[in-house]
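Holo prediction — magnesium ion.
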Amino acid sequence: MSKVDVVLGSFYGDEGKGKIIDYLSQKSDISVRCTGGNNAGHSIEIDGKKFAFHLIPSGILNKGTIAVIGNGVVVDPKVLIEEIKNVEKNGYSAENLRISDKAHVILPYHIEMDRLQEELRGSEKIGTTCRGIGPVYCDKFERSGIRMGDFVNMKFEKQLRKNVATKNKIFESYGHKTVDVEEILKEYTEYAKYLKKYVVDTVDLLHNAIEDNKKILCEGAQATLLDIDFGSYPFVTSSNPTIGGICTGTGIGARFIGEVYGVLKAYSSRVGEGPYITEQDNEIGDMIRELGHEYGTTTKRPRRCGWLDLVALKYAAMVNGFTGLAINHVDTIGKLDKIKLCTGYKKDGVTNMKFSVDLDYLKDCEPVYETFDGNFGDISNVKRREDLPENAKKYLNRIEEVVGVPIKFIGTGAGRDSMIVC
Ligand code: IMO
Ligand code: MG
């Protein structure tokens, strides 16, 4: 039986998971999204064409790869249909898309609820993507959600009416815009018809594939420090984008998991609110943002930028059991003269590697940096790690040494081929 490989985000998302996924999915029979929804944004560049995926596993672009949206994902039908059409418009086929019958459906009231909740949080807002993610997972756990299977088989009207009645009462009480159940029914019935052919029992599909020795790749979305349990709560997303979410989001048992790749950038970034120890809210952060084009794929927001934090990375490696690291944007950081790497936190006069997502703990931690020389030059065509410039080698070696996990992939440029496989 085959082992399932997993790609996960190490920090606050946007680590360039899409690039690694794109490479690995070319060698996979099946590529699966497991958690989150269209709050994710994976961009990949193929033959000069840029694709931004929010829901469909990017493996869809490889002929013959089955692209699965697992049960742990929350699906906005409208966004999904737009994405299917976009794939087809660009000359690719969406025939190989499969959606779990157990995935929950994002409806307009989830999006309105997300907006209302952010408004009510005022200055303490989370900075969500306002895609309805928190509210749809609430309904799932509250057991009032609508699942894809019932949705496409037109068994959702009764639950929809109940939900809309409850949500509208809440909206009214805050003077927030209400939603119209008849309009939703009309519009979403069309979406349900459109999506019906893609909806199946994906648990069966995945297990048959494992038995047939097929190669499966699990595409993580979001990232470790955005995890509802292991992230900087409440500044997190409403799912488990860590390793456990891969099992519950697909029905694949832990013993079938093979490689677990942690993706990171040679610097760091964060969208939305919450603690960020190595943030450079200054001209260095601005420079990194411009060099790395750090603007959201999903919301276009400028990302907060800073140095790479190995204290947090070590924590991510521990929580997920990373077997390898994939480090992107080595070319980008190499454009700077001097690069800093956080190798400890100083608190109450003591420096160590202790990480905690406890906001009170993090509040007065100060990053301790080691400084490296940059100016790597153009490395986009380098194919072997040993051929990298000395400065780049020193930087990468130190990361590996501190975290204790081998680097398996090195991103050297934006193009599909600009990557060193170690
Ligand atoms: P990818 O897959 C970056 C962040 C939001 C916000 C918090 C909660 O592209 O790496 P939510 O809408 O999920 O309730 O927002 O989580 N967030 C992301 N940030 N990349 C993502 O996904 C994200 N998904 C959620 O900005 O701070
Ligand atoms: Mg993103």
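READOUT: The two ends are 25 Å apart (CA to CA).
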